[in-house]
Amino acid sequence: MAGGGMIAPSVNKGYPGKFTGRVFITCIVAATGGLIFGYDIGISGGVTSMPPFLEKFFPDVYKKEVLNIGGTNQYCKFDSQKLTMFTSSLYLAALVASLIASTVTRKLGRRPSMLLGGALFLAGAIVNGLAQNTTMLYVGRALLGVGVGFANQSVPVYLSEMAPYKYRGALNMVFQLSITIGILAAYVINYFTAKMESGNGWRYSLGCAGVPAIIFVLGSLCLPDTPNSLIERGKNDEARKRLQNIRGVDNVDEEYNDLINASIESQKIKHPWAKLFSRKYRPQLLFVSFIPFFQQLTGMNVFMFYAPILFKTIGFGANASLFSSVITGVVNTVSTLVSMVTVDRFGRRGLFIEGGLQMLICQVRFLVYLSISAFNYFN
C-alpha cells in the first residue's frame, strides 16, 4: 500500500506489453507536476535576496542587508522570523496537505488529486504575484504549499502505476528531472528579473509560478486515470481496457489479475497503520523513514532554497550570487539526466552510495571554506 493507494506489484515479471507513445506522453505530462515544486524551491531564495522585495515586505532586513544600518555582520543580516516564515509556510502547508491528499488520491483517483494540486498552486502564484502586504504573501505561499502537497502525493503514484515495470525507474526519474528543470528555470528567471529597473522583478518571479501550474492543470485534464485506481473504485472492465490501451497489447491477463489480487489484499487490511508498525514490516519502515530523514539532514535542500543568499554571505555580489545559482541548477539538471540513463542499468543502490559519498566530500570542502572565510571576517 502506498500513501495514495495501490501500486502495481513490483514482482519482476515479464508482463507482455510495449513502451507505447501513450505511456511516454502521459508520464511526461504527469511529471510536469515536478515543475511546480522545483520552481518554488528555486524561486524563494532569489526573491528574498532582491532589495525591492525586502524593502516592501521586510524593511528590517532591508536596513541590515542593503543599507547596512546597525552594523550587523554579513552572517546575520537575513536573521528574521518573518522572512523565514515566508519560505517555510509553503512546506508547512505541504506537510499538512499531503496527509489529506493521500485519502483524496485513493478515494477519487490520481487525476482529480493532480488537478486540485495544480489549481491551488495556480491560485497561490496569482496571490503572490499581486501581493501588497505580508499577509497576501503568506496566504499565497500556503496555497502553493497545498498544491505541492497534492501534486507530490499523486504524481509519483501515477507514474509508478502507468509505467511498464522495466522502465519504472527511469520514468519515475522524469518527475525528479522536472523538479530540477523547475529549479533551474527559477534561478534563470531570478537572474534576469533582479535587473529590472522598475523594482517589480520579484512580482514576475513569483507570478511566473503560474506557468508550470497551467501546464500541469491542462495536461492533467487530458490524462486518463490509472488501471490500479479504476480497480480500487470497482471499475474492473474499464481498468482492463485501459491496461490494454496503455500496454499496446490485448493479452494483459497476467498483469490485470495481479492488480486485482493486489487490490483484494490491500482491502483486507483494516488497520494499515497498526500493520505498518508490526514486527514483520519494521525493517521496511525503518528504511523508508530514515533514508529520506537523513537525506534532508544533509542540508542539500536548504542549499537549493537559499543558494543566492548563501553565496551572498560568503562575499559574492548580487549578480554573481544569482549567476552562481544558475550554475548550480545546470549541474543539478545534467546530473539528473545521467541518473535517468543509468538507474535501470546499475541499480538504485549504486547511485545512492555514489551520490552520498559525493555530497559528503563536497560539503566537507564547503564547510572548510566557510570556516576559513568566517575566521578571516571576524578576525
UniProtKB/TrEMBL annotation:
This is Sugar carrier C-like. The chain crosses the membrane at residues 23-43, 83-101, 113-131, 137-159, 171-192, 204-223, 285-309, 321-343, 355-378. CDD domains: MFS_STP. Belongs to the major facilitator superfamily. Sugar transporter (TC 2.A.1.1) family. Belongs to the major facilitator superfamily. Phosphate:H(+) symporter (TC 2.A.1.9) family. Residues 26-379 form the Major facilitator superfamily (MFS) profile domain. One of its GO terms (molecular function) is symporter activity. GO terms for cellular component: membrane. It holds the Pfam family Sugar_tr. NCBIfam families: SP. Signal peptide: none annotated. The keyword Iron does not apply. InterPro entries: MFS_dom, MFS_STP/MST-like_plant, MFS_sugar_transport-like, MFS_trans_sf, STP/PLT_plant, Sugar/inositol_transpt, Sugar_transporter_CS. It is found in: Membrane. It is a multi-pass membrane protein. It comes from the Eukaryota. Keywords: Membrane, Sugar transport, Symport, Transmembrane, Transmembrane helix, Transport. Its main location: membrane.
